[in-house]
Amino acid sequence: MKPLASRRWLVYLAAAGPGLIAAAAGNDAGGIVTYSSAGAQFVYRTLFLMVLIAIAYVIVQEMVARLSVHTGKGLAALIREEFDLRLTAFAIIAFAIANVGLMVTEFGGIATSFELFHVSRYISVPIAAVAIWSLVLFGSYRYAERVFLLMTVVFIAYPIAAVLSHPDWKAVAANTVWPHFVASRSFLLLSVALIGTTITPYIQLYEAGAVVDKGVKPSEYHFQRVDAIVGAVLAIFVAMAIIVATGATIGGTGPLTSATTAAKGLEPVAGAAASTLFGVGLLGASALAAAVVPLSTSYAVAEALGVERSVSSSFRQAPVFLGIFTFQILVGAAVVLVPGNLITLILNTQVLEGVITPVTLILILVLANRRSLLGSAANGRLSRTLGGVCIVAVAAVAAVYVLLTVFGWFGLS
Amino acid sequence: MTTPTPADAPNRPRLLPGRNRNPDRLPHQRRRRTRRILAQEGVFDAIVSLAGLLGRPVRNQRGQEIGRLEDVVARWADGQVYPPVSGLVIRVGRRVAFVPASAIDRVGHAEVSLRSSRLDLRDVERRTGEVLLARDVLDHQLVDVEGVQVIRAADLYLAEVLGRIRLVGADVSSATLLRRLGPRRWRPRPTPDRVIDWAAIQPFNEPVDPENPAAGVRLNTTNEGLHRLRPGELADLLEDLRRDERRELLAALSPDEAADALEEMQPEDLEQLLRESDPVEAARLLAAMEPDEAVDALRDLPLAVRAEVLRHIPPRTALGLRELLGYDEDEAGGIMTTALVTAKSGEKVKKVTDRLSDASGHDVDLDAVAVVDATGCLVGDVTVLDILLALRADSDTRMSALLGEEDVVTVSPHASANEVAARLIETRRHSMVVVGEDGRPLGRILADDVLDALVPTKGRFHFPRLLS
After folding, report:
1. Could you say which of B153, B171, B199 is where a domain stops?
2. By residue range, what is the domain housing residue B370?
3. Nearest residue of A to residue B153, measured between CA atoms
4. Are residues B394 and B442 in the same domain?
């Protein structure tokens, strides 16, 4: 019999995964571009906001893990069972729109990374769309996924770059512990994008689905919680490193407009190879998410409609499932092919995510509060209040942005 | 709960073979069912949509509105095919109250009228065997036993049958979902184009107490049709259900039925099922499975979970499983089953057939009997047909007399699946014995095991599971 400590470690490893992977997948093309843009435009001023986002992110991820471990159900199924059908339809449609936005982001990331290697997007995007579609449908995706994940390891270079770029640590610390917000429209826009790219609705559904898929029991919940929290903290750590690294190298140059500029954030560590390194990482992160995001939409729709059987891999058996899957890839690729600045396009889709995120968050909070659903595992007074405050804050930022935009249409702001 | 006797097992009324997921069969079966429910005279006019009725006024005898319908309570227990409604939950102002079924006069499409003008409102209390239809059944998972599919009820239909208001059917059509999304006045209109008769449905006893989830794991009513399903069909159902429902369905099956169904499940789904079950329960299921299938399942489990489960399996079975786990997944030792019937060469045929009948639980793995000499080394492999013919001729024939001229076909436990397939093809046999270096038989490989090992299976999409 092995000593208890080491056996516990093994059990933890068995439960590990969903949270970490969700975190890795969270730092996708949208994340990297948005964090880089934050550093470029406002240097370290967004760091305090990132701390707030981190708190909200950890709280939400923990609630999602708790919900799925204790009920054994995915988020979409829970929403269908616990809420009115109209609310379910609204949530699923919002989720689907957010995911189509994400697909635009991912194909934007693929196009951007190939442009760093001087390949036109009119060549790279159609090929990538066909490749991802067939990789997933013809079953060899599992191997490809490992390659993509390996490519994203590149982003571990960011924390190193953050140190090597010799940032003004005093300023970094001051901006992290005390807000240095800028009262401007562009700061608000970027804040919504930062929220949207970090607390993406898809990450929550992914986390829930993956926890259920792993068959984690309530008795193993504490391991799952560690996984969810460690994953979330790690994701934010990398995000803040990106902001510091880009802030120190290209800070103050205004909004990010090209990938070549963004890649400068890696120069302290990679020198002339920064652009290559950035391209490889961006490609891996985008391709990884580009396959998982459309699957998660199809999964959620199937779960909400109650046609789980349709999550199979033959088109004849699952026309709706694969139809949704194909549609998202098509739309994502098509939007990216419209001429325009890719970086701006990616930033704008993150804003869309930020506006939709509160819908999912509110539903998660209500579900996690329900004693009839979770019994003693339901939110206590503290997590209820803390979760409520965080989600209201996130929703408020999104609402202010939407209101300002709508006023803008009528020339009021 | 009844288990099917072997006698009635073969005549299952299935139109098409088990694992066929051809969607064409479902509309066809649904049409048949619709005709059946509509054939009952007057039922069509009388069926009331639960989704349409919720939130509608509840009136007293004089037509005054006393509250709004919040939920309908039905009794699951008692073994009745169509569960009777035992009461209504109505919202009166800010209070929620219970009205017993005896006080209901008429359940219309858009309102409920009560029998008396006076009404004593009792507090809602859910007794065992009762479910809240809107909260616990509508929009939740159900099993359609006839159509062999897991559904989510888009609507439930009530009708007066045999003097009581009962739950008569569930609706799964997307048109019904649209009706519920649409304006309020569409909602009471029943759209019974894809109604499944409640007789064909296995509901779940959903109110699992969140404080004590293990307490709710029992089905109050078990649809007899469940026991007529093939293992492959049960496997499909288990794959589509979520944890609690899956646990209930497993509890309704006999251990052998459950084990047979598990053997047919997709590896990823089986892994999920075993990981989310209690180790004791997982061990019970694995011990009832054929050893080769159990080993495949154990192989997919993370080491820590595997060790935990093995500790709860009876020592003798666990020993055999551990031995099989020592082989690689794609070599003969990993494919073979250890459910092997052996006989001494001097034994009489009659005695061997007795042993075969004892081992008949492993029927799918029985194809031939391995014959060993006094030292336990393999000397021959006699098919069950040869034994049967010999028994008919003379029950005192000894096994040695049945051994053929040619060498016995064997394979080493470390041979690859391709080598095994090649050997089977060249010898035209259905199975062969796996023999260790010392010449003793270790197990048997059947042709279908080789097929499983060689044909790549393409399952359903799962969220990627790296690091696991």
Report:
1. B199
2. 335-453
3. A306
4. yes
Q: Where are the beta strands (DSSP E) in B261-353?
A: 342-344
Looking at B168, B199, B230, which one is the last position of a domain? B199
Best residue in B461, B462, B468 to probe A by mutation, most A CBs within 10 Å? Answer: B461
Q: Tens of pLDDT along A317-335?
A: 667 778 888 999 999 999 9
Instruction: Output the pTM of the full model.
Output: 0.81
Contacts of A220 (CB under 8 A, 6+ apart): A11, A15, A69
The CATH code of the domain that includes B121 is: 2.30.30.240
pLDDT tens, B391-430? Answer: 888 878 888 888 877 778 888 888 888 888 888 888 888 8
User: Residues B252, B345: one domain?
Assistant: no
Residues B45 and B170 in one domain: yes
Whether B17 is in a domain gets the answer no
CATH number of the domain within which B380 lies: 3.10.580.10
Whether residues B322 and B358 fall in one domain: no
Number of structural domains (chain B) is 3
Distance CA B468, CA B464 (A): 10
> For an interface test with B, which of A90, A308, A315 has the most B Cβ atoms less than 10 Å from its Cβ?
A308
Helices and strands (H, E) in chain B, number of each type: 17, 20
| A206·B458 Cβ contact <8 A | no
Residue A139 in contact with partner chain B when CB distance is under 8 A: yes
CATH architecture observed for domain A28-409: Up-down Bundle (1.20)
* Chain B positions in Cβ-Cβ contact with residue A317 (cut-off 8 Å): 21, 23
Same domain, B66 and B146: yes
Each residue's pLDDT tens digit, A164-194: 888 888 888 888 888 887 878 889 999 999 9
User: What is the three-state SS of chain A?
Assistant: CCCHHHHHHHHHHHHCCHHHHHHHHHCCHHHHHHHHHHHHHHCCCCHHHHHHHHHHHHHHHHHHHHHHHHHCCCHHHHHHHHCCHHHHHHHHHHHHHHHHHHHHHHHHHHHHHHHHCCCCHHHHHHHHHHHHHHHHHCCCHHHHHHHHHHHHHHHHHHHHHHHHCCCCHHHHHHHHHCCCCCCCHHHHHHHHHHHHHHCCHHHHHHHHHHHHHCCCCHHHHHHHHHHHHHHHHHHHHHHHHHHHHHHHHHCCCCCCCCHHHHHHHHHHHHHHHHHHHHHHHHHHHHHHHHHHHHHHHHHHHHHHHCCHHHCCCCCCCCHHHHHHHHHHHHHHHHHHHCCCCHHHHHHHHHHHHHHHHHHHHHHHHHHHHCHHHHHHHCCCHHHHHHHHHHHHHHHHHHHHHHHHHHHHHCCCC
Are B125 and B142 part of one and the same domain?
yes
Chain B nearest C-alpha distance from A210 (Å):
6
CATH number at residue B226: 1.25.60.10
Residue B464 maps to a domain: no
Q: Which residues lie closer than 8 Å to B80 by C-beta, 6 or more apart?
A: B166, B221
Domain assignment present for B4: no
Could you report the per-residue pLDDT of A191-231, keeping only the tens digit for each?
A: 999 999 998 888 888 888 888 878 888 888 888 888 888 88
Task: Tell me, yes or no, if B300 comes closer than 8 A to chain A by beta carbon.
Answer: no
> Residues 206..235 of B with a Cβ closer than 8 Å to A: which?
209-211, 213
Residues 354-413 of chain A with CB under 8 A from chain B are 371-377
What was the ipTM of the complex prediction?
0.80
Q: How far is B329 from chain A (nearest CA, A)?
A: 19
| CA separation for the pair A108, A352 (Å, rounded) | 15
* A116 contacts A126 by C-beta, under 8 angstroms: no
Residues of B in contact with A309 (CB under 8 A): 21, 149-150, 236, 240
User: Do B349 and B302 share a structural domain?
Assistant: no
